[in-house]
Write a structure and sequence with these properties.
By secondary structure, the protein is of the alpha/beta class. The chain is built from nine helices and seven strands. The longest helix has 29 residues.
């Protein structure tokens, strides 16, 4: 039986842990050939080896700081060198420094913007010409539901993720006739290892982020990955320029 992403080449950024690692596993299970990237090279290799140990093809890995244009370009080039093409880009690299706005420093503000927005900008800038030339592509950004509901302590993070949302809508219109779609998956709080660790340190502080979710729980990483894979598939050919929240109802249209 043919899998959904048979022979397709998929780049997943921020793939060394958490949501990115789970997204990578979902694509592997659906037959994709993977290029994984993250700043954490050692953990990136662990994720790739785990995927291979499950009986799927060994992903290629390329570590580096994707907020640097030349590094992002090298990741895309490495995927082309390895596989000859590119079909899907998942801009998952990120990570927020969550704190009250006036407690931020210039350094933490720059880091938040770099991790979330510039990684997306540069990877997309390098990937889209490849997709345009072949007349097909899927770009899925990982945004944040907090952009829509204004969570406490998320102002700087939302500045970055708001840009991640906005670039997708602009590009969706610009390349609508080139066979490329651009969409965003916007999660609420997600049960990642990072969140689990933070909960052990201060369960009460994190509970307020769960309290805004009508379902009364954090999202699971598999729930986020499932939506990413749908938007990256051929089935979603008429879905573009959308910010789709996977959020247990914390914002509703």
């Amino acid at each position: 039986m043919k899998s959904r992403f048979d022979n397709q080449v998929v780049i997943v950024t921020g793939a060394a842990s958490g949501i990115g690692a789970v997204i990578a596993r979902h694509f592997a299970e659906d037959g994709a050939r993977l290029m994984l990237s993250d700043v954490n090279e050692e953990q990136l290799k662990v994720v790739a080896e785990d995927i291979a140990a499950r009986g799927y093809g060994m992903p290629k890995v390329k570590a580096g700081d994707l907020s640097k244009e030349e590094i992002a370009g090298d990741v895309v080039k490495s995927a082309i060198d390895a596989y000859g093409t590119l079909d899907v880009l998942v801009n998952n690299a990120g990570g927020g420094i969550i704190k009250p706005f006036l407690e931020h420093t210039p350094a933490t503000l720059r880091t938040t913007i770099d991790r979330n927005l510039w990684t997306t900008v540069w990877c997309t800038w390098h990937a889209v010409p490849i997709m345009k030339a072949k007349g097909y592509g899927r770009v899925v950004n990982i945004g944040a539901d907090s952009v829509r509901n204004g969570l406490w302590d998320h102002a700087a993070y939302n500045a970055a993720k708001g840009g991640v949302h906005a670039i997708a809508t602009g590009l969706a219109r610009e390349f609508a006739k080139d066979g490329i779609t651009f969409n965003v998956v916007a999660p609420c709080i997600v049960n990642t290892p990072q969140v689990q660790k933070a909960t052990l340190m201060s369960a009460q502080a994190l509970q307020r982020f769960v309290d805004v979710v009508p379902m009364g729980r954090a999202g699971e990483m598999d729930e986020i990955a499932s939506m990413v894979c749908y938007l990256a598939s051929k089935e979603a050919s008429f879905v573009t320029g959308q910010v789709i929240s996977v959020n247990g109802g914390s914002t509703m249209l």
